[in-house]
Amino acid sequence: xxxxxxxxxxxxxxxxxxxxxxxxxxxxxxxxxxxxxxxxxxxxxxxxxxxxxxxxxxxxxxxxxxxxxxxxxxxxxxxxxxxxxxxxxxxxxxxxxxxxxxxxxxxxxxxxxxxxxxxxxxxxxxxxxxxxxxxxxxxxxxxxxxxxxxxxxxxxxxxxxxxxxxxxxxxxxxxxxxxxxxxxxxxxxxxxxxxxxxxxxxxxxxxxxxxxxxxxxxxxxxxxxxx
Length: 227
What we know:
single chain; 8-stranded antiparallel β-barrel; 45% strand
């Protein structure tokens, strides 16, 4: 009888260690931050050629300025804070520049294509979090003109863009600082929009010992070519 009691105690202890200690070990010693979202790079950049004015279209781009968009969030795992970055290259868009002013611009992201290093996380993101079957795209649309006259022909310039961000079918006005590089006949632009998920009807997952912070960012890097 005494032996059976000790066996039962041992089983309970092992179960408790697995529940409380294993997540802490994972979060503290195993889990690693993802690489940050891509931003404009001057690696391999060329002096600007051609005219800035015209109609521009988002293209695939080349490394290190390959077009991508997605999100950055923090997962909190038993007190350990891990940065998670999801991204996709399924991005389209266009821009119109007239007399050195960005008159119109739109970036459209196919949300279902956003992935991380975890298939389980991605499935939660596509279904319960973002409901991509109902809301397949996320968009940023410019609402105010942007003066581009200060952009250098060589190197990165910065402008501020005001527009509407649409996530999960909900629109909100946003302002974002955008880094812009003119390289050859291309434009490369990147930005990160601070985002509180519940503002868009997005409930951050809470799976017990793993929770997602209520704020993060929507990130983009786009390469454009003239039509």
